[in-house]
From TrEMBL:
Keywords: Membrane, Transmembrane, Transmembrane helix. Residues 260-270 have a biased composition (Low complexity). InterPro entries: TcpC, TcpC_C. Residues 260-279 are annotated as: Disordered. CDD domains: TcpC_C (cd16428), TcpC_N (cd16386). The chain crosses the membrane at residues 20-38. This is Conjugal transfer protein.
Amino acid sequence: MRVRGRSAPRRGWSGGGGRWLVWLGRAVLWAVIIVIVVNGVRAPIERFAAGDQPGQTAVTPTGSGFPETEAAAFAGQFAAAYLNFDGARPDDRADRLAPFLPEGAERQFGWNGFGKMSTGGIQFSGIDIGDAQNAVVTVVAQSGAQRWKLSVPVHYADGRFVVSGQPALLPAGGPAGLPQAAEPERDDVTESELRPQLEGFFKAFAAGDATQLQRFVVQGITLDGFGGKVTLAELKSVIAPPGGTSRDVTAVVVWGVPTSATPSPAATSTDPTGQPAGLEQAYRLSMEKQGDNWYVKSISGATRSVG
């Protein structure tokens, strides 16, 4: 006789809560996917539309491909030919200009053939690049007491340059205004102590005598002198601020610079070109006092001299 076992009672909600969570998770996942797809489609459309809106800042590509260094050298050489002329020898200028000008350009490139101008000190000032083949290069130059700027349009192709239009002469401006410097505090006693010491130092510095220099510098410090190329004409001023055994001292000296001019047969002893030149210079000296004497630790150009 088979005995039937009692069946377990049914639970109507068994697993129902788990299915509800699964459905909720699926709904959230689909919502996330829809957001990602919508944003992915919308972003390029917005970027495309923004490109046509006024006031948007365009991204400037880096590296124009224009050879700036070579263009600066080319414009400087052109300026040397263009800004130097002599009405007595007009063909000289035309010959110098020829390598810079396009085929068929007028030989003097705008000069009327009169007058005389001598220009030097030509240096690169700036460049305005239009594209990979065109730019305007600006150089500065000096003619007598006048400083100039010259803007030169240039074209680049096949590894070569040509002046692509008439240049523009511009004023370079005068010197900047320099504010009045405050009178420094001075230690008269220390300045009196330093003067004979510094006279000896600058004489040895001019001569470039290493043995003599060691008498005036801090032990272990080595300084290179001028090797006799200048002489000390005058120690004009010594300015020492109050302080301890270490001071930054300003000294103004006059160097005697031998003339390089070859005397003419008719030259006299009063001919100014045959006399040594004098150049006033300002130095900053870091000095230390050891015992009764001051010694130089370093020497450099002064930031601003007062004397």
